[in-house]
């Protein structure tokens, strides 16, 4: 381990290096990932989705590990130097970099949406950037499937923090998931790159809506009714919207075409927002357009039900799901070889070792744990 990269409520990410190849990688520890049905389902969904996705602008999950005791899970990813939030804050992005980043994000979203999933948590800190201005979308914990019903609680549906990138329909209590939610979040990221600060820095749900309507103006009744929420009209009636802000004045250094593109992302009515294919051919972005790079895939299916699984059964499913996806489909990179934690021969030995876990499980528990620990220690360190 070299340095701590970040942490969240349920996980921590470290930068590490392979002792054999000296290549860097990121390793994420998910605390109690196998503890209960909810945690197991969330963890499995992320592993399943990342092992299925294969796109140059989506982070690659290279290996997974689980301890022999306890309920933590370890995920190993390719390493990226920084995130878009840090890069934007440092004010080192040239105009051409901003265009290229937007283009790559559009490509990543086109691919994800073709798979029938919505990222549901797009924000600058979830967009990693390297020194060559290549981006990778990360954090698939909050991913939802298109058309999935959202849980609505006392009129306001669940959403992730921070609220600054959340679309208005979610703030108003929408009832199902759509691709257009990601389009709004991408517009907020785009606007933040252009403006040099957050576009809608709301301090509460209601204040967030007020900040949004400062830019977009109050929606028509027709547009409000287009939002699938029984509470939208009531909430909007109780807002106190101050004087409208002018994007033209705030983005004085941007061309009219650039401002028009931003406005197309930030439309209240989801059905009227710009489509990804439209944005890709817009003059602002089209200088980078290469149709060969616009890849898609078949829709994903929801992962299997974990409600009746023990932690041991679930652990087997994690490894089986990940290994099957990597064996059956050649990725752009071969997962055991990107940042190998072990030399290839020992890697094969460890994989074979997991195949006999079922045998160990048949012997008394104390002996099973002792044998597993000793064997893995030998394989890894000798």
Automatic annotation (TrEMBL):
One Pfam family cited in the UniProt record for this chain: Pkinase
Keyword match Methyltransferase: no
Keyword list, A-Z: ATP-binding, Kinase, Nucleotide-binding, Serine/threonine-protein kinase, Transferase
Domain Protein kinase: 1-285
GO molecular function: ATP binding; protein serine/threonine kinase activity
Keyword ATP-binding attached: yes
Gene3D superfamilies tied to this protein: Phosphorylase Kinase, domain 1, Transferase(Phosphotransferase) domain 1
UniProt cross-references to SUPFAM superfamilies, sorted A to Z: Protein kinase-like (PK-like)
Protein name: Protein kinase domain-containing protein
Record organism: Arcella intermedia
